[in-house]
C-alpha cells in the first residue's frame, strides 16, 4: 500500500462550535432593544439558569473567563499557604494559585486517568496545607470520592478545574456536585463556549454572595465596597452567544461521539498506542481525543509522530507538555523536582491530542487514523 495523501487543508486539533449566525443575531437584537451590555443583564441571567439545569448544579455564577473564575473561587474559600495540585494541566490552573498568593505543591498523577493521584496526596499534607486543586483532565474524572475522604480527614477545601469536563457526570450527578467549588471554562476551544467565558459551580448557598462580590469589585451597594474584588463579569454579548451555542451542544456531542468511535475502531489495536477509555458510569465531554505513544512498542516517539502528522497537514497538539512544574516561574518550588513526578513526566512525553470536533466528521477521522497506521509501519 502506498503512502496516504496529505489533507488539502490544514486540520487543527479543534474548531469552535459556531451556531447559525441568525440565532446569534436574534439574541443580539434583544440586547440592543434592552440597551444593556453588561452587569447582570437578561442574557446573563437566562444563561445562568439554563446552565444550572444543564450542569445539574444548584448554584452557578458566570465569569468573563475561566481563569478569573478560578481566582475568585480560591479567594472565596479564604485559603492560605499551600495547595496540593497537579503539574499535568494548562498554565491557568497553577497561575490562579500564584495570583491568589498561594503556594502550589505538585503531586504526581495517576497513570490511567492522568488526573491527580489521590493515593499520593496524603504524604504531601502539612500544617500549611489548606486545599486540593485537582483537574478533570481531558474530561477524565478525578477520584472524587477518595479526594473527598482525604479532605474531610484533614479539614481541607477541594476545588476542581472542570475546564475540560462540561456536561460530565458520575452516576448521573453533574461533576459540580463534588468538591467545594468547580470551575468551568467557556473559551472558544472548549466544548461549550461563549468565545471567552467561565463559571463557578458550588453547593453551599452561603458562598454565593461572596463570589458575586469578588466578581464585581467587592461592591456591596452605592455606599459600600467590602473587599478587593476583581472585574470578572460576563457581558451580554458573551451570554447571548452562549445561549445560541448551548442549543447545539447536544448535537456537537453526538458528532464528536462518532469521531471518537471511528478513532477507537481504527486505532484500538495499534501496538504501542493507547486510546482513551470511557468508563460506563461517567458521561463523557468528548473534549479531547488523546492517545499515548509508547516509543519502545510503537517504534517512534511522540515528537516524531507529531512532526510526521504535520507533513500530512494534521496539526495534533502535545497537551500537556511541558509540565507546569517545569515552567521557569515555578523553578524555586521544591515539589517541582522531577524525581517526585515520575508518572507525570512519562505521560507528558507520550500524549498527543488528535483533531476532535463535530465538523471533522468520521471520514476525516478515518483518514487521520490511516495516516497514523502508516506512520507506525514506516
Ligand atoms: C482552558 C483552560 C483553563 C482556562 O480557561 P480560560 O477560560 O481560557 O481562562 C483552565 N484550566 C484548564 C485545564 C483549561 O484547559
Gross geometry: globular
Q: Structural class of the secondary elements?
A: alpha/beta
Percent helix: 25-40%
Instruction: Characterize the largest beta sheet: strand count, sense, and whether it forms a barrel.
Output: 7 strands, mixed
Instruction: List the secondary-structure elements in sequence, H or E.
Output: HHEHEHEEHEEEEEHEEHHEEEHHHEH
Output the number of helix runs: 12
Low-confidence regions? none
* Number of separate strands: 15
Instruction: Give the rounded overall mean pLDDT.
Output: 97
Q: What's the end-to-end separation, in Å?
A: 11 Å
Query: Which kinds of small molecule does this entry bind, naming each only once?
Result: pyridoxal-5'-phosphate
Radius of gyration computed on alpha carbons: 21 Å
Q: Which band does the percent of strand residues land in?
A: 15-25%
In the sheet with the most strands, the strands line up as 1-9-8-5-4-2-3
